[in-house]
Amino acid sequence: MPTPVLLPLRHFTDHQVTLRLHYSPDRLAHVRRIVAALLSHWGLDDLVDDGVLVATELVGNVRHTENPSYELTLRRSESDLLIEVKDFGRTLPAIRTGPPDPDTSRDSGRGLPLVSALSAACGVTPLLDGKTVWAALQAGPQGNARMGDSAHRTFEVLSKS
């Protein structure tokens, strides 16, 4: 299992963009376009598809909080990307375990397993005023989480030190 605690703090200092937004399902398309354009601008073309999907899933979880305000932060290094969504809800996300839900009409419960499968590391950091849910992606064949054994990765809950 990757060790995600220090990776985001030490290796993502080259570029950073933070957007302060209010959740609305109608705005998810805008978030996707912004993330895709930013990653292309940064030269992280290998991460555009996965980065857009991960960002959309993390932002989509804001709908489960009482407060629709959130911050979407993207940080990059030469070939790595950290996507963070800070919201003001105190309920921590959890990946459902067990067999997949056969009810495909449900609009909830599939996002975090997808984020975990696409990322090199992911987790949630509880904060005094909410939480930050994050995922780290790595470009190139050696970094694609899908090429590794994702069965041993979990969604990490990290305490703020």
Automatic annotation (TrEMBL):
Keyword ATP-binding recorded: yes
This protein's record includes keyword Transferase: yes
Superkingdom of this protein's organism: Bacteria
Gene Ontology MF terms in the entry: ATP binding; protein serine/threonine kinase activity
InterPro entries per UniProt: Anti-sigma-factor_SerPK (IPR050267), HATPase_C_sf (IPR036890), HATPase_dom (IPR003594)
Pfam families: HATPase_c_2
Histidine kinase/HSP90-like ATPase domain ranges (all copies): 24-134
Record key words, sorted: ATP-binding, Kinase, Nucleotide-binding, Serine/threonine-protein kinase, Transferase
Signal peptide (from-to): none
Name of protein: ATP-binding protein
Organism: Streptomyces himalayensis subsp. aureolus
Taxonomic lineage from the root: Bacteria, Bacillati, Actinomycetota, Actinomycetes, Kitasatosporales
